[in-house]
Amino acid sequence: MNFRTFFTLLFIIAISLCLGSTFFPDSVKNILNTVNVTENIKFIGLTSLITALFAYIGMLISFYFARKRENSRRQRLKSDRINIDKIHAELESLR
Question: Which one-letter DSSP state was computed for residue 66?
Fold first, then answer.
């Protein structure tokens, strides 16, 4: 799993837990009681919001570096294509 996928999944899970604790606190308490979590619902909402914030920042950074890597790959392909065209033109001139 790459960083982009990790931060995206973490953001989705954290934001859904945050929204769930805001709009459906009883359901979230019942779900979390099945895994023996007995924290205050406000605390769960706050920590999931902070986790979602950090996941969103990580997601933005990972998307930036992925785009940067993709652009450098495209530039490399473009320069390789230009080199191939130059070699082809030189071979044609030798004929």
Answer: H
